[in-house]
Queue: 3 jobs
Job 1
Amino acid sequence: MIFENLEQLKKGVRAAVKTEGGRVEVADPGKLRGRTIDDLIHTAVFSPDPAAKEVARWIIRRAGAALGIHCASIQGLYEAMGKEKAGGFTVPAVNLRGLTYLCAQAVFRTVLKEKIGPVIFEIARSEIGYTDQRPAEYGAAVTAAAIKTGYSGPLFLQGDHFQVSGKKYAGDPEGEVNAVRVLIREAVAAGFFNIDIDSSTIVDLSKPTLREQQLANSSIAADLTGMIRRIEPAGVRISVGGEIGEVGKKNSTVEDLRAFMEIYQEKLHKEGKGLAGISKISVQTGTTHGGVPLPDGRIADVKLDFQTLELLSRTARSEFGLAGAVQHGASTLPDEAFDRFPKTGTAEIHLATGFQNMIYDSSSFPHALRDRIYAHIRSNLADERGPKDTEEQFIYKTRKKGFGPFKKDFWMLPPECLEGIGAEMEKKFHFLFGRLNVFGTKDVTDRFVKPVDVASPLPAALSGKAGQREDIAEEYGEGE
């Protein structure tokens, strides 16, 4: 059910959750994990009433906190990895572009089954746009999935590729960086306590020295790190990532890393003495986001440079105390590649397109809906087709942009379709997490990560500040 207004929402959840003084109490966990959480998250995503959406998201987050589900930073674990007090695994970071509530449940079922500690749920700046998922909505969907499956513990939400557009930066440097600042503030308010800054797009390889090539990249990363430190909630040290080489471009080197870090540390010191810097570094070792589709639609083999990845991770730890290197664009790699990441000391691996492909290509996904989405792409995205693209290449590269316009169609698939897709996703998550060696890592994560309950402001509709009836405000409380 989608609650169309606050009155419906109030009546629909009162048996499962109670509120008093701005707090949410879970009166009946069984009912909450049953239909109520389904209704809440569908309202949070699809209600025609903006106030009902906002309140549903607030209830989900506070109910999650009441059940021990807290948005958290992975900083403590990454600091331990940097000191080699923890390791032997690679943290998976999954981008859920569509069916977020369903897919996150598949992740949590695997986490619970295998006692996994660190799994990151992330969404990139570009994905926020074409999947129509703002941070507050994405965080609510993941939290709802945690509630649904009975998970409790830290919830690692991450802003992936909070990227400075090279093209926009060239025309308006301050305006483009400020757009990233605004997004960071929005994400942190939504519980994203892990932020990956990506200003690698403005690395200038035409410059004669590595320092000159990395200067703008390092400076912006330091500026945004300083801003993050000024807005992070009390008791939370947000994990910040940097990036030295744009994915799909020139492979990174140890010399690139050293040049980036030298400037970054200088600039960060000017932002404020003693400020904590980045905890990890994203590098380019031969992958491309989404893989490279061949004319027949198959994905080209990738020659990933594991030797360089290992050297970069080792240098990041030994010289700068970072957790290690981060590998992007990995979800379309062959299965046999994944167990090599823990062996090379890779700190984190980002996985996105492979899950998207599983949804579209699933035998449980209706052909009629897929045909509608592809027809939409042909009609509305024709200008994105390369001059030499075959039909298969064009569709493969653009179908990610079907998730936003058809979001409700995805979420409202028949139960048997959702069940089939969910089972396939769970099987894949289990395989990948096993290869990345994160089974049994709950204890080590709990040792180094201590989440705090960060209060989320009472929605205006419930505080009497949006013209709502007083009895609604009284039932939900005036603030936290």
Note: Residues 6-69+455-476 form one domain.
Job 2
Amino acid sequence: MTATEEIKRSQIPTHLLTIYNQKVVSADDAVKIVKSGDNILCHSNCAFPTVLMEALVKRKDELRDVVIIHALSVGNLSYLQPGMETSFRHNAFFIGSNARRAVGEGRADFTPIFLYETPLLFSKGYINLDVALINVSPPDEHGFCSLGVEVGLTKTGAEKAKVVIAQVNPKMPRSLGDSFIHVNKFKYIVEVDEPIPELLQGDRDSSPEIIEINKKIAWNIANMIEDGSTLQMGIGAIPDFVLRYLEDRKGLGIHSEMFSDGAVELVEKGIITNEMKTLHPGKIITGFVLGTKRVYDFIDNNPLCEFHRQEYVNDPFIIAKNYKMVAINSAIEVDLTGQVCSDSIGSKLFSGFGGQVDFIRGAARSEGGKPIIALPSTTKDFKISRITAQLKPGAGVVTSRGDVHYVVTEYGVAQLFGKTVRQRVKSLINIAHPKFRDELEKYAKENNYI
């Protein structure tokens, strides 16, 4: 079904249909409004506006210093190819695998920032947006389009941009909540009909040993989750396995910057009901989804799910209002005092802050809350301990030692809150891989930690 057919089916009033049709142009014509030096916000994650971006890239020879702004995105980013940097420069709020090389080679930029503060860059004028390129559902009978699979960062940005160009795509699910933008806001509309990109889950590329380690970590975490808990968990193998181990729990809820396919299964089984939540009872609260068509179909026009701006979803003070808030976040390495690096490998920028600190702090202030940092005890080749004597030179501390409460590996749980350095060191050595414990203990003794 094309966007036009979808609009006719929705029985949009004649005056709104006239407004809509007056704005419909080709992608090539729509992006002609972009000028050299403009700041361009692109819809993030699986909502990346590929058709509009491909049209913009065609203008590479006539444009200079156009800044492309977004968080993680899924798919090929052609404007990040070597040689494009004089025309386009990416400002990443989170570095995905498709942007890592460009950032590492200095052809793209990274802004370290807490996720809940990211939209404030637009609303408070730190970044003035000239154009927003977004990917939306067809308008309903009132003229409102949904931002679909990603609302959290884009809603505020689209409101603040001088010009909004919308890809209208009947494949985009109609997410509910604070997710709508009216056709009157659009300068141009480009009709497309293409599947929303999917992000597959889990350990499909991992060895049996790695899968088993992730299962053990997930089991340790699952044993910490009580009936009635509200969950935040990101994408990846460990969160996916955690959800599989919760099938005997009752009354779980979700308040998370994002969720994926695994949560859908627990909703269908009556385990995630959201009925015991103290904030937004009966509702899943989120900013975006990452996953497959299964989760896209689940959120489509589903009143169980409320999408909100990231400055709301990820506000630590909002998060803390949830009873038994359990935040599960990953790390690249943790030193013996509890400092957490999760955005770089040494000085090499790797990802970003995401919502880790937002939810670690929010869960810490929640009644009965549990802020959890989870990681395997070693690298995938088993040659390097990820419980380290010191963080690598240049490594970024995303979560400070004062914020960390629980660290979980396949060898157990270290509870660090309120503990002395000596107690922390002993607890973390106990959950390190056994072959590294002696050298970690030697370092701790040499530095008078124990």
Note: The first helix runs from residue 3 to 9.
Job 3
Amino acid sequence: MLLYIDPGTGSMLFTILLGVIGAGIYSFRMLMIKLRYKFSGGKIEISNSKIPFLIYSDDKRYWTVFEPICRELNKWKKDVVYWTGSPDDPVLNCPYEHIKAEYIGKDNRSFARLNLVNATIVLSTTPGLDVYQWKRSKQVDYYIHIPHAASEIILYRMFGIDYYDAVMLSGDYQLQDIRNLEALRELPAKELVKIGIPYMDTMANRLPQVGEAPEHERTILLAPSWGPSAILSVYGGKIIDVLLKTGYQVIVRPHPQSFTSEAELMEKLMNEYPDSEQLKWNRDTDNFDVLRRSDILISDFSGVIFEFCLVYDKPVIYTDPRFDLSPYDAWWLNTPLWTTSALPRLGYQLTEENMSDLKSLIDACLTDPKYAKGRAEVKEETWVYPGEGAERAAAYLINKYEELTRTEEVK
């Protein structure tokens, strides 16, 4: 009888195999680098000066996640080194005296620096530590992860946060999912601290300062995630056609990763549906203004849903949240995704069958009072300590640094 492996297990084994191969390739490359430096009379530069706080961001779009924390640490006169993978990251023009930013390159260039860095604490929103090329440095005492969205922590690719020492969270459901994964994989318990959502606090604080959006025609924002289960991959131009038929203004804001991982699809759609008086494509780094001037959002499993509903207090239309979980951490758990219980309280579900009635769905969603109640419920579940996120994050980092350095002194 042939040995059968179900698709989920097969995907998991394939992921593990890729990790082993990736680790082998990385180790070989590092050996070659060391030999090259040795025989050239040089040496790999490893600073003897330990960085107290290092923030690593693989892309400029995460500056909104880190900026409130940097601002708070700067108030406390804490020196922070900020490494970015984007040459045009806004942090490179950061005015904060105690935040020193540097562009360290992309992919292997950045990993070469990260894998040998000497730091007490590394804070990052990038998953995959110690899975592929990004290895834990022996000279780093503590790795802390902060999510970049107010949603599932288990929708990272497999093992995304397994090898962090701590994770900053915004809801109990996230904490429980991590604990369940740790139990299944027999991992040491990470330090899990609920601090809230600093970047959403900042967005909420900006709203009363700038006021409501100027009077405008009804505007629909299509802002999906990326990947084979995302809206633009599933429906292609069909959903744009239907949106244009509503007569409303349409803004299409693809996930930034789509322009890398789905470049052909993006080029095709942008050529078929160029900017016009009714349709605009949006790629702003900061999504504050585009969310502010949109009346309703259409999305899938993107974290932007929660920004739009909970900060701007507006409804959404979402696609079927059921998708192939096999590449993700969520595949390991038998519990339903929290998102599947949250979305029906935030708006209507869009399906292949009701897409032709999208205009009616939009109109109904904008006038049905039950969604205001649903937004309040979801906010309470996924956004603890509103308004306090940056302060709590900074306080945790400072206390952790003092704890770690105290331990070093005792040793």
Note: The CA atoms of residues 25 and 31 lie 10 Å apart.
